[in-house]
From TrEMBL, chain A:
The keyword Ligase does not apply. One of its GO terms (biological process) is early endosome to Golgi transport. It comes from Astatotilapia calliptera. The keyword Transport applies. Residues 970-1197 form the TRAPPC10/Trs130 C-terminal domain. GO terms for cellular component: cytosol; TRAPPII protein complex. Residues 619-632, 1152-1165 have a biased composition (Low complexity). Keywords: Golgi apparatus, Transport. InterPro entries: Ig_TRAPPC10 (IPR056917), TPR-like_helical_dom_sf (IPR011990), TRAPPC10/Trs130 (IPR045126), TRAPPC10/Trs130_C (IPR022233), TRAPPC10/Trs130_N (IPR056913). This is Trafficking protein particle complex 10. It is found in: Golgi apparatus.
From TrEMBL, chain B:
It comes from Pundamilia nyererei. GO terms for biological process: endoplasmic reticulum to Golgi vesicle-mediated transport. Keywords: ER-Golgi transport, Transport. The keyword Transport applies. GO terms for cellular component: perinuclear region of cytoplasm. This is Trafficking protein particle complex subunit 2-like protein. Belongs to the TRAPP small subunits family. Sedlin subfamily. Pfam families: Sedlin_N. The gene is trappc2l. Its main location: cytoplasm.
Amino acid sequence: MRKKIFFNNNIPLPPLELLHFFFFALFTSLYTSLAQQLPREPMEWRRTYGRAPKMILLEANFVQFKEELLPKEGNKALLTFPFLHIYWTDCCDTEMYKSSVKEDMMRWQNSLRTHGSSDWVIIVVETNDTKKKNKTNILPRSSIVDKIRSDFCNKQSDRCVVLSDPLKDSSRSQESWNSLLLKLRTLLLMSFTKNLGRFEDEMRTLREKRTQPGWSFCEYFMVQEELAFVFEMLQQFEDALVQYDELDALFTQYVLNFGAGDTANWLGSFCAPVRNWSGLLLRRPIDMEKRDSIQRGEASLLDLRSYLFSRQCTLLIFLQRPWEVTQRALELLHNCVQELRLLEVQVLEGALDCWVFLSCLEVLHRIEGCCDPAQLAANCSHTVGLWAAAHTGTVLQSPYKKLKEALSSVEAFERHYLELSHAAMEMYQAIGRLRSARLVGKSLAEFYMRKGDPERAETFLQEALKSYVSEGWSLPVTHTRRQVAECQKLLSKTEDYLQTSALLAGDVNLTTDERKHFCQEILSFTGKSGDQSHKVTLSMGVFAQLTQLKFHPAAASVHSGAVLQVELTLRCLMPVSVRIQQLVASIHFEVDHGGTHGRSKGAQRRTHPGTVVFRQSNSSAGPPSSAGAGPSLELDEIQDRSPSDNSLNSTGVICKNTHLLMRRHDSNSPPDTPNCISPPTVGIKEGAQMLKVQDVTLEPGNNSITFTAPPGTYTLRQLCATVGEVQFILPHIYPSAQYEVYSQEPQLTVEPLSEPLLAGLPQKVKFTLLTGHYTVKKGDALQLSNTETMPILPSTKLVGESTLSIQSSEKVTSISLPPAPPYHTLEFQLEVLCIIPSGADRPANERLTNGEVRHRPRSYSHPDTPMTAIDQRMSIDCPWSIYSTLLALTFYIPFKTKHSLLSAGNRQYIQVCVQNVSDVNFALAEVKLTEKQHASLELQSLNTKTQQLLCCKHSVFCLWEVRWKDDLPSCLQCVFSANFSPLSQDISAYKPFHYQFQLERVTTLYSVKAEIFPPAGEQRCRSGVLCGLEVCITRLTEPAEGEIAEDSKTETDGPKTTKLMYEVADSSSNWAVCGKSSGMVLMPMTANATHKVQIEVMPLFAGHLPFPKIKVLKYLPHTAAVAIQPDPDSCVENDSLSLLDKTLDDQGDTASIRSRGSVHSVGSGDQQQKGVAMPRLEPFSPGQVFNHSHACQVLVLPATDDHIMEVNAT
Amino acid sequence: MNTNMAVCIAVIAKENYPLYIRSVPTQNELKFHYTVHTSLDVVEEKISAVGKALGDQRELYLGLLYPTEDYKVYGYVTNSKVKFVIVVDSSNTSLRDNEIRSMFRKLHNSFTDVMCNPFHNPGDTIQSKAFDGIVSGMMVQTA
């Protein structure tokens, strides 16, 4: 027995059909495993038109072959299409094949051919049973297969497959089973591709015919949907969806064309009036009811749209894209409404809303059904639109149950409406679409208002208003604010209502009539003579804006007695003129106004002097520029001055309003929003000082109001306008404006006309008198105490209109002042001369006229200049004060003077050096040196010029020889004097300059003469050879009085002697001193006493060597030192001298030193006497010792040429 | 009525206040203000979504922000976060995405010109005649 099997794709809808015969038992067992195993492995599906290949799993239904099931020509059904025909046979008998099987196959083939199907396969099943049965007639299996192949499969040998022992579990049977599966898959796919391609081509052809009359969209719809079904069965949902989307687009295009006047006949059925508005139905995968109506061409527009969408929805959910469903749903809803309008379909009132609403809920329901809640929440943004759409259904319906319930009663309707609205709002808020949420809230508020619940409405409105204000949307602000006003009026929130009314009255978006209405609302309230306690405080910003503040005079600073006016410019926002009972500006007294007299501050100074312009934050309308850009930078200069001398330490710029600028940006409510959300609670400060004007009428637009300021330093703080019971308050005037009405003490200052003031020359100084509050009367005078060191020269002149008279008495110079009003400046110049202190003498303190101890000007060196400075103080008695004014002027001495004594043997010279340390060139004349005490002394000038130029930074040296008759006095009191004048001026301007100095111990006591002798037998000294140095110290004079007194204490008997110490020191390392280099000499104190010392020295170099230096010092024994100040530096008790001692000639004396030292070291000495008792060395004054051999040189020959330098010239 | 046009065109500052908003005079101006304001929600959403993904290489055109029954609202954001919003009548089916795009481009060019005006203070509302003219050209003309 044979069975032929037809393969088909696994399509759920059509029934199974068996097409051929086979051994039933065998077939059923094979059928199940075939149907199961066929889709186990995917096949690569290569597609036409360049579409990407896909891996697909093939499923198949096996149906028995019946000829009538073969597709007729023009059959569009793809679902029931037989893709592969299989002929099964287990025939292994040649006879049997020839007799019946072949014939049957031929018949089968013929019927296939007549229906144009070339997709077939013959399967030869081979079992052991069949072989055993007919052993005799058996042919090799291959021969049957070969026969079949040669009979049917010319050139298509793969159309015949052998399946061996399918019911056995052998590897051989398994292998043949697998190859069968593969073969079937391949053939099936081939056929499928071919047939699908043909189907698509036909479909396209059909679509191209759409312009022909009689073409029906519904018919075409069914064809393309067939394709979609096939894709869906192949799990190719994307492709399936494309089919529906194409249908959707095609239909949309037709509707649009209809709107444009291009009508297609078939559209007529869609233009029928809407009778059914049952909404979308998404629960079933295929809404057969609607599908049938489409097939019959009876579907309405909503039916078609609903069916199309339900299919798209199903596929999208298969594709795991539920969010697209909601998005498409929203588009669909809007689109359908549009399409119905375009097609001019008659719709019952409310039917459409009903359909929209039901559809929304259905979509939401479907989506919720297929998603978990978390996903749902995360994707609220997709659903929220639907919620909102459901909510906006103007007349509210509910689906099925809800609809009936809602329509049954007003209460239920409200409940559902609120529920939906709140749901939509919450969702909007959750996804951050706050603006949308507020808009829903606003319509909710409108609903509440209609219901007469203004309280709830206000919350929503305020919320919305806040957002519009903060983002600067003026039109919505105005609209919402009007609604708010309505609420507030109903709620009797008087203050809020007035505030809002004021804002609306000044709102340019409203008509003048409307504005007047709101203005009137305020005025009528103020007109009510209510109880006094009920005062309403509103923000000034809603009523009028302070635009400018101007001070007259501009400095904003006047002295008391003058008038300071403050002019405010108020821009009144009201549409009509408003009469104000009182306008008050409160002012705050500034305590710390230290050094700001007569100067205006910060803000005023920066722009135009005296004018503060206030930036406007637009209260109700327009862009919130202040909110966007922030407040402007308010910069001020700072200077850090040293507290002691007011010198500048540092300077910089500070920002005064950082607290406004540095705010976090996310918390930005505009800095000043008079948006009526919360009226200002700040009242005007009680008890503050105020500027007031009464009864002002503010016209719309700019108004100017002038206040007069009271004395003091004040900052303007607040502004308050009172209209009846209403106060409009500007709680903070910013930027701050400050003014000052001040009172000032008279001030007298003296400053040099030119810097620096030079001592010794007439110098001009400027007196500046700020009269302050004091009026200078006739006869008022300044009394200057005269000082010797700084006389005032009678050359005064006044800078100004009248002259000044100066009277000088012995002690006082009186300057009479011209009469002057307060806060006036008087300036005049005086010429003064600071006498250069001559140096030595310092008379005792004198007393000034006022009894004060006169301060001697003290000279000191100034760090900035090489000149010596003198501070000259002036004491001035002023008519306005009982105290004297002390002023100081600093003068600089232009010269530095030095003197020195020079001697040559017995002759003495005095040299004076004058150095010009100023920046001025001087002429120096009449240079003189005098000695005060000794008339017999003659100072002979060695200066040739009578007048000398002394340029700046240069020096002049003057020299005198001292000549005396009897004895040269040991102390000379000298005065150097010269006349000097700035080079530019004539002789008459010469001023004297004195310099006193004292010279002591000028007499030459000793002369020191050194000689160097070459070694014995040599003519010259040689380097490296010892030579002799003979030092000859000669006493030149008899001892003077003082000198004896100094030394007499030790040596009372015999001839007076004194001890000298000499020291040979060669600082330039030319000489090596061999043996002792220093020693003590006992010198008789008589003239011409001589002492010679022999010392051995060795020249170290050849050439003209300067003599080694010989120092002679006074040696003071310990007892002699009592009168002399101890000088630790010259103490003998040190190591160097101890070493020196060993070489001294005078052993006795050194011993005494030693013993003294040792006594001291044992500690028995008087500690108090210690310093005084030390033996000391003291240098002689310059000129007391004359060194003959100073700067002498001796020729030293090179050492004997012991070493021959070999020079080899090769 | 020329249907190939917008019914409302708005320019919104970075801080979300309107720099310019104009609608067809016969229609409800207030409603457009509300619509444009609400559309900023979607604009912000789109900007933040795109910003994360592509950084600065985003496209300025934001596409359809949201449809309502009566209008379609399209958005565009400049690199300086200035937003352009064009509202089109829903019944106006002749306007395609490309046309909307080119409208925005024209608007953007004109806006750039306004910003280039040295006398214009950035952040102030736009009061340029040239800009007005461009907008008028894109708007529905009601005679």
